[in-house]
């Protein structure tokens, strides 16, 4: 089975809503990791005054490893629930995945 790493990045407030959705929906049974960070880019329309001055916005990045076949349905569900130009995603191939049990 091929796995991919799905990365989601969005403003922190939206990220918290997405985390709640992922936890409640059980979509990512294997779990996921979320990390706070700063986004740098050209679209600061939704940024606070302080974020505009600093030149960065607070973001949440969510990372999950999942079967490749599950990516498209999850992205479609997220797009339907959170239609936002500030919710960005990308995928990466995973060559190996497992634990040490």
Brief description of this entry?
The chain is α+β, with helices and mostly antiparallel strands and 101 residues long.
Please give the structural blueprint.
Blueprint: E1 3-11, H1 12-25, E2 33-39, H2 49-54, E3 57-67, H3 68-81, E4 88-94
Antiparallel strand pairs: 1-3, 1-4, 2-3
Distance between the termini: 19 Å
Kindly identify the CATH topology: Alpha-Beta Plaits
Per CATH, the architecture is 2-Layer Sandwich
Q: What characterizes the major β-sheet?
A: 4 strands, antiparallel
What is the top-level CATH class? Alpha Beta
Strand line-up of the largest beta sheet: 2-3-1-4
Molecular structure report:
The chain has 101 residues and is an alpha+beta fold. Strands 2-3-1-4 form a four-stranded antiparallel β-sheet. It has helices at 12-25, 49-54, 68-81, and strands at residues 3-11, 33-39, 57-67, 88-94. It has a single domain (3-94), classed as 2-Layer Sandwich (Alpha-Beta Plaits). 34% of the residues lie in helices and 34% in strands. The mean pLDDT is 87. It has three helices and four strands; from the N terminus they run E-H-E-H-E-H-E.
Any descriptors?
Alpha-Beta Plaits, 101 residues, 3 helices, 4 strands, alpha+beta, globular
């Amino acid at each position: 089975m091929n796995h991919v790493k799905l990365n989601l990045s969005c403003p922190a407030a939206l990220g918290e809503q997405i985390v709640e959705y992922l936890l409640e929906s059980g979509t990512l049974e294997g779990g996921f990791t979320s990390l706070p960070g700063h986004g740098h880019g050209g679209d600061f329309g939704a940024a606070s005054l302080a974020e505009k001055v600093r030149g960065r916005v607070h973001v949440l990045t969510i990372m999950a490893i999942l079967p490749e076949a599950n990516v498209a349905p999850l992205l479609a569900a997220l797009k339907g629930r959170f239609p936002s130009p500030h919710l960005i995603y990308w995928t990466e191939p995973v060559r190996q995945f497992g634990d040490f049990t």
